[in-house]
Design a protein that fits this description.
Radius of gyration: 23 Å
Number of strands: 0
Strand content: under 5%
Shape: globular
Distance between the termini: 59 Å
């Protein structure tokens, strides 16, 4: 590999394609760049290790995405005596059957939906990353491997693949590359991609029929049921348990259903100090405060979403996934310590406010984080200015 490097460096005949060579070289080998002059800072953490750690933290959610997608589909097929999906998925599943009690059957069935979405995301995303890197002469970054996986995990299993390609294209071009690429985006690219599909193609992102990978079968989420429930109905009247939602054996976006899987990922990110505990803690506090406020008013308001107790909000929808993996994005979140507390509180409060007060958007975590991304630089600015004023007064 090193023998051909000279052809891709400046002056070589393949100089224009250096970003492509560098991407392959970075995956296969460690960096040969070292600091030549003082000062020297010895630290084993670099961008590659940070992104690798995040990918490891996402493994529990990814495994749960495949298992639960297959489990939901197999459960419906077995309960209704259906024949299963037609086409290549049905041909493959015919080898193991549609048994919801079979670990192999559930994983395989779910993988047949998850991997096509993930492959399309990575292929299209890598194309756009390559185009912009070659034009600008930038090196490939490992950051997209995380963005691509996060985006795939936030989607329903039934989404058309062409919409997956459209969504990731929009997010990368207009929420990342338009602002200069890696480290310069002001909002999370994965969430921007999902938000684009959410508003451009709502029929494929919302409703009852998109969460269970069986044609013509409804599998509404609990938030969706409460959003259209009649006045007087409440969470207590529905046949669901808190443990069921904590474990994630429910319909929903593929990687967002299991709070337990998200907590395992949070533990990894916090132990390795990759994610900010301040953002996680403040987002959690904000959600509990907002949830308690609405719950205490449930007796005077007809909206069934007000009947959700605060501890239920933490395991429903994509709140846990957003708290752990999206809100803590080191680029689009606040950077100062005080700013991180304010940022997290805003995200937590807005997530529950949008979820409860506006039944048209029962899943408010995505919008809350995107709004928080917009305010994050403002929080940092005021915190820095306040620090400057204090120092001027102290030393003036």
């Amino acid at each position: 590999m090193k023998d051909v490097e000279r052809h891709f460096k400046k002056g070589g005949r393949f100089e224009r394609w250096y970003p492509v060579y560098e991407a392959v070289d970075t995956i296969l080998y460690g960096s040969s760049l070292v600091t030549k002059t003082a000062p020297h800072i010895r630290d084993s953490i670099d961008l590659k290790r940070i992104m690798t750690t995040v990918l490891i933290a996402l493994i529990p959610c990814t495994l749960m995405a495949m298992w639960n997608t297959g489990y939901q589909a197999n459960s419906v097929i077995a309960a209704m005596g259906l024949a299963g999906p037609e086409g290549w998925r049905g041909d493959i599943m015919a080898l193991v059957g549609f048994d919801p009690t079979s670990l192999t059957s559930n994983f395989l069935h779910g993988a047949l939906y998850f991997f096509p979405i993930y492959i399309v995301t990575m292929a299209v995303g890598a194309f756009w990353e390559g185009v912009f890197n070659i034009i600008r002469g930038h090196e490939f970054s490992e950051a997209f491997t995380v963005t691509g996986l996060l985006f795939a995990l936030t989607l329903p299993p039934t989404i058309p693949l062409w919409q997956v390609a459209t969504g990731i294209s929009f997010g990368l071009i207009f929420a990342k590359e338009a602002f200069g690429g890696v480290g310069r985006n002001f909002m999370n690219p994965a969430l921007a991609s999902r938000a684009f599909i959410y508003f451009a193609y709502p029929a494929q992102m919302t409703g009852d029929a998109v969460w269970t990978a069986v044609d013509g079968v409804s599998g509404a989420t609990i938030l969706g049921q409460l959003a259209i429930a009649q006045p007087g109905e409440s969470l207590a009247s529905m046949d669901v348990s808190w443990l069921q939602y904590f474990l994630g054996t429910t319909p929903g976006s593929m990687g967002e259903t299991s709070t337990l899987a998200c907590l395992i990922g949070a533990f990894i990110l916090l132990v390795t100090r990759i994610a900010s505990w301040r953002i996680m803690a403040s987002t959690l506090i904000g959600a509990i405060l907002a949830g308690a406020f609405f719950y205490l008013r449930s007796g005077s308001v007809a909206n069934p979403l007000y009947t959700i107790a605060p501890h239920w909000h933490l395991v429903m929808g994509g709140f846990a996934f957003g708290l752990v993996f999206m809100a803590t994005d080191p680029v689009s979140a606040a950077h100062t310590h005080t700013g991180q507390w304010l940022f997290g509180l805003l995200v937590g409060i807005l997530a529950i406010l949008i979820r409860v007060a506006n039944p048209a958007f029962p899943e408010g975590t995505m919008l809350a984080i995107l709004l928080g991304n917009i305010f994050a630089p403002l929080f940092d600015y005021f915190v820095i200015q306040a620090n400057i004023k204090r120092r001027m007064l102290r030393h003036g």
